[in-house]
TrEMBL record, chain A:
The organism's place on the tree of life at top rank: Bacteria
Keywords annotated in UniProt: Signal
Pfam annotation, one family: PCuAC
Transmembrane segments: none
The protein's name: Copper chaperone PCu(A)C
Organismal lineage: Bacteria, Pseudomonadati, Pseudomonadota, Alphaproteobacteria, Hyphomicrobiales
UniProtKB/TrEMBL annotation, chain B:
Spans through the membrane: none
UniProt KW Disulfide bond keyword: yes
Name of the molecule in the record: SCO1/SenC superfamily
Cross-referenced PANTHER family: ELECTRON TRANSPORT PROTIN SCO1/SENC FAMILY MEMBER, LINALOOL DEHYDRATASE_ISOMERASE DOMAIN-CONTAINING PROTEIN
The UniProt record lists the keyword Metal-binding: yes
Entry superkingdom: Bacteria
Similarity section: Belongs to the SCO1/2 family.
Disulfide topology: C81-C85
């Protein structure tokens, strides 16, 4: 039955393509760190325009554990205050809101901070920062655990590293 | 119709449906027009634009006539905005950079929606971080209300828990051609090449 088998082959090929697409979506957050832990990556602080009172910082948190992680706050001795904020763009309108209840990161998921999304607002630097400097951050979770990270200071106007694979990976212009 | 033929057609239908599902499920394959929109088609009522009078970061009073004959890139924001305001203005600077002398017929604006905190001194210092073809403008509160209406800008003061406040504001960059005609927007997520294409087209419009 040649007709039937060719139809079957078409189905199998289609199904395989489908599975491959699914698998790609699954494995996309690739991380060097161990699989069962919290991994903080791409921590960056972008210098503010001249005279501005606040800087923005970005990082990604990979929660490799089964259970949800709840980030409650970020602290740094290098700043008077660090708070979590989210820029929501609704119908073309930018709304900056503080995240007071913390952020939950489901198991095997990534929290990805970016301009126009979740970010850290850092105010009152204790010392003048310049590009390339390292700033220690301490992330506190609701279960009492902490994770530390070193953020790299980037020049004003630089986009934070876009961690998602594919598009924008090499977007490190200027 | 034979059963074999019927089965064949059925299989083909299943395969086609699956193929369509796969196509739709792969990110980036959805049909999306990335080409710059020619002007703004869906504006109802008068197009954005019109007279304004504000204080520039240089201290002088300026009006729309000060920048007549130039293409405008207009962004509204405020300096107590760590995330998208510096990002957008840095991007705008990069457009000026990329266009070089081509952009001499172009003026960028940051119009503050927070004149209360953004004094001329604050704006002067802040805007010095960006391309010097970008001007910071401070309207008085009543001018801001008029400007927002005429230019179809949204802004709102929103109290924060610390007893402070933040500003909601229109996020995109508004384009005006050399005749002062509203010519569309550049949205935050648009790639640089698209932004540059829109700006070049803006400068060519007469």
């Amino acid at each position: 039955m040649p007709g039937r088998s060719s139809g079957f082959i078409a189905l199998v090929v289609t199904a395989m393509t489908f599975c491959a697409a699914e698998a790609r979506a699954q494995e996309s957050p690739r991380h060097a760190g161990s699989d069962n832990t919290i991994a903080i990556e791409h921590a960056e602080i972008i210098l503010a325009p001249s005279g501005a009172k606040m800087m923005a910082g970005y990082l990604t948190i990979w929660n490799g554990a089964q259970q949800q992680a709840n980030l409650s706050s970020v602290q740094s001795d290098a700043f008077a205050s660090v708070s979590l904020h989210r820029t929501e763009i609704v119908d073309g309108i930018a709304k900056l809101r503080s995240i007071d209840a913390g952020l939950s990161i489901p198991g095997h998921s990534e929290l990805f901070m970016k301009p126009g999304g979740v970010h850290m607002m850092l105010m009152g630097p204790r010392a003048e920062l310049k590009p390339g400097d390292g700033v220690d951050l301490l992330l506190k979770f609701q279960d009492g655990t902490t994770a530390s990270a070193k953020a790299v200071v980037r020049p004003m106007g630089q986009k934070p590293t876009d961690h998602h694979h594919g598009k924008d990976d090499q977007q490190e212009e200027k | 119709m034979s059963v074999v033929l019927f089965r064949k057609i059925l299989w083909i239908l299943i395969a086609a449906t699956l193929a369509l599902l796969v196509y739709l499920s792969i990110p980036g394959t959805s049909i999306k027009d990335n080409s710059p929109a020619p002007g703004n088609a869906e504006t109802v009522g008068p197009a954005p634009g019109g007279p304004f009078s504000m204080i520039a970061h240089t201290g002088e009073t300026v009006t729309e006539k000060t920048y007549a004959g130039k293409g405008w890139l207009m962004f509204v924001g405020f300096t107590n905005c760590p995330d998208i305001c510096p990002t957008t203005l840095a991007e705008m600077s990069s457009w000026f950079d990329a266009l070089g002398a081509e952009a001499d017929g172009l003026t960028g604006f940051l119009v503050t929606v927070d004149p209360e905190r953004d004094t001329v001194d604050v704006l002067r210092q802040y805007i010095s971080s960006f391309d010097d073809r970008i001007v910071a403008l401070r309207p008085s509160p009543s001018e801001l209300a008029n400007f927002a209406k005429a230019y179809r800008i949204y802004y709102a003061k929103v109290p924060t828990q610390e007893g402070d406040y933040t500003m909601d504001h229109t996020a995109g960059v508004l384009l005006f051609d050399r005749d002062g005609k509203f010519s569309g927007t550049i949205d935050r997520e648009e790639p640089k090449e698209v932004a540059l294409q829109k700006i070049r087209r803006l400068l060519d419009r007469r």
